[in-house]
Design goal:
By secondary structure, the protein is α+β, with helices and mostly antiparallel strands. It is built from 9 helices and 8 strands.
Length: about 240
């Protein structure tokens, strides 16, 4: 897989739209390492603009963010908070079941890095790609993701926080050699951290390795229907 070829294909299909973020772990920070306050989704903006940022257990202030990044085991207060404070699940037990079944990998002591794919050399060490997309861009991405995959969950929308859909689901799926991609940013607590017309779509590298080769066979290669949608896509202003 050639990263320059993918960027060229992406830009031919989506114009001058924002390129996806790459995410990966490392034993040393590979970008700016600064303390975050609250939801760290807002702190991804520099990466979306071209910088590389790194996060770890010390810089992420949100306990949920630490859990879904693999830096902290689930504290007993988290299910209570999600259920009884945020009212996102009917009971703490449902939250406990969700986190347990997700089987988040232990990444404590490591660094989680984010960078635009324009800022990296290759796909070799990545866990996945994260697209921040408008409805028209999502139309293309979802069509591409479903092009060679008839599974009803080929594009999944699991429960979870913004960082769960961007990081935890993507990492776990990649480690399990999975073939799902994930729509995200439906978490009301995380919604204010992105633009009003933006959702996310995360592709684990195990899935992207196959999707990379289907890009130009899909409707994104210039079908009449897609070209009509493409005309409305504008560069993302954030």
């Amino acid at each position: 897989m050639d990263i320059d070829v993918f960027i060229k294909n992406f830009q031919q299909a989506f114009g001058d739209y924002e390129l996806p973020l790459a995410l990966w772990y490392s034993h040393q920070p590979e970008g700016t390492l600064e303390k975050t306050w609250g939801c760290f989704i807002k702190d991804l903006k520099p990466a979306r603009e071209g910088a590389t940022i790194s996060l770890n257990a010390d810089t992420i202030s949100c306990r949920g963010g630490k859990v879904y990044s693999g830096f902290l085991a689930m504290p007993p207060t988290l299910p209570i908070f999600v259920s009884e404070k945020e009212h996102y699940k009917e009971s703490p037990e449902l939250v406990e079941d969700f986190v347990r079944d997700l089987c988040i990998l232990d990444k404590n002591g490591m660094y989680l890095n984010f960078a635009s794919i324009a800022s990296i050399r290759n796909f070799d060490k990545l866990e996945g790609l994260v697209f921040f997309a408008t409805p028209d861009v999502l139309t293309g991405l979802v069509s591409w993701a479903q092009f060679d995959n008839n599974r009803p969950d080929a594009v999944s929308v699991p429960f979870g926080s913004g960082c769960s859909s961007l990081v935890a689901q993507t990492i776990v799926e990649n480690q399990n050699n999975g073939q799902r991609v994930f729509l995200g940013m439906f978490d009301p607590s995380a919604r204010p951290q992105v633009e009003a017309n933006i959702l996310s779509l995360s592709i684990p590298m195990t899935r992207f390795k196959k999707m990379y080769h289907t890009f130009n066979d899909s409707c994104l290669s210039g079908s009449r229907a897609w070209l009509k949608v493409k005309e409305r896509i504008e560069p993302n202003i954030f």
